[in-house]
Amino acid sequence: MIRPLRSTTILLVFTTAAACSKGGNAAAAAGQGGAGGRRAASVTLAQSDVGRAVRMALDETVGVTGDLQPIETVDVKARLEGNLQSVLVREGDRVARGQLIAAFESTQQASQRKSAEAEQVAARGDLQTAQWNYDQAQELFKAGAIPERDLRVAEQAVATGRARLAAAEAQVRATSESESDTRVFAPTSGVVAKRMVEPGERVPRGTSMFTVVRTDVLELQAAVPARQSNDIRAGQTVHFNAGGRDLDGRVARVSPTVDPASRSVTVYVQVPNASGAIRGGTAATGRIVLRTVPDALVVPSGAVRQQAEGGQRFVYRIAEQELEPVNVSTGVVDEARALTQIASGLREGDQVVVGSVGTLGRGMKVTIIGAEAQPGGARPGAAPGAGSGR
Q1: Are 30 and 23 in contact (CB under 8 A)?
Q2: Where in the chain is the domain with CATH 2.40.30.170?
Q3: Which of 4, 176, 312, 389 has its CA 20 to 30 A from that of 126?
Q4: d(CA 268, CA 71)
Q5: For the stretch 93-118, what's the b/e string if a residue is b when 16 or more beta carbons lie within 10 angstroms of its beta carbon?
């Protein structure tokens, strides 16, 4: 019984000594940790959680989305009823304005035109004869050789001849147009999108025969919120991505009215497509550039925070491996690249916390995983978007 008691006594002695040793270390730590003897809180960040304030050109933009449609779509219809003699194009064929693309049988129309031309020749001859008779009648009347009645008859014959000639000329024009309608020409330069007729088919007047689209310019019709439309003007540049390609267009027109249902304004954007690389109907997303700030100080938009109820905006700056909340004023926001201009509050090269990484506070120690050994922790020259995690 005595030996176990001695063992216990020795254990207590050692435990008391260890406690005294730990108490000394805790006191030293309290001296380093600040008031209350508690260590400062810390946060561990990945490199993707850290951004850097840098200078670059920044665009203020308004986003648009929609489908790029051909600038012109023409439905070619039959202008008369008849039998198709030939159809010269198919879907996908490129045509030039005025190119012959189909032809009707034209024997009847050609005969009517020739008959009208013959009537025109006869009417012109009759008018010439009536005019000569009238000129002679005037000379005879002046000489007293014929009564005034004969002069008036000759004058009336001239008027009748002129009317007959005018009718004959109108008939020639009508029959010529009818014959011309037997030949179908491309109304615009473009590509045949649809062909709805076949050779030998009898086609009623007004039947749709072809659809020709002009794709050298594509147009996007987009609805922009009315509050964002005030600064949109014709001629502004638009950066697009369509079909995996980046391309630039311009604002062509802006609707002068607001849609009462959606409270939006329709904007029409045109994109050059001379090579035809982009097909009509391709979905596209774009950014209308309202203005460009050439040398803006920017940070990832995810770094900018705001106090409750629309209060002051601020960022968490990393200085000497500690967090420091800094009030900032902002300018242009590039939503496409998730960048925000900092008008005041930061300097070029300052490192900031990006995104939601938990509870943060002033004086928290910062450890950046994988960062090089340097003040602030982030890689030198890191782009502001590198830390956005987007």
Answers
A1: no
A2: 63-70+213-292
A3: 176
A4: 11
A5: bebeeebebbbbebeebeebbeebbe
Q: Closest Cα to residue 48, out of 298, 300, 333?
A: 300
Neighbouring-strand partners of residue 344:
329
The conformational region for residue 200 under phi > 0 = left, psi -120 to 50 = alpha, else beta, is: left
Structure tokens at 386: 């590198």
Structure tokens at 124: 């012109």
Q: Give residue for tokens 């129309």.
A: 109
DSSP string over 211-258: EEEEEEEEEEEEEEEGGG-TT--TT-EEEEEETTEEEEEEEEEE-SS-
Task: Determine the Cα–Cα distance for residues 146 and 134; give it in Å rounded to an integer.
Answer: 12
Report the pLDDT value the prediction gives residue 337, as an integer from 0 to 100: 83
- Return residue ranges of the chain for CATH 1.10.287: 107-180
- The confidence score (pLDDT) of residue 371 equals 59
Nearest to 82 by CA among 110, 44, 56, 54: 110
Residue 35: predicted pLDDT: 37
d(CA 302, CA 184): 60
CA quadruple 370, 375, 380, 381: dihedral positive or negative? positive
Q: Which CATH architecture has domain 63-70+213-292?
A: Beta Barrel (2.40)
Environment class of 228 (CB within 10 Å of its CB; exposed 0-12, middle 13-18, buried 19+): middle
- For the chain, where are the alpha helices, taking DSSP H only? 2-33, 107-142, 148-180
- In the beta sheet, which residues pair with residue 210? 76, 195
Q: Which CATH class is domain 40-58+294-387?
A: mainly beta
The CATH class, in words, for 107-180 is mainly alpha
pTM: 0.62
161: number of Cβ within 10 Å: 21
What per-residue confidence (pLDDT) applies to 372? Answer: 53
The rounded distance, in Å, linking the Cα atoms of 80 and 389 is: 65
Tokens of 369: 């995983």
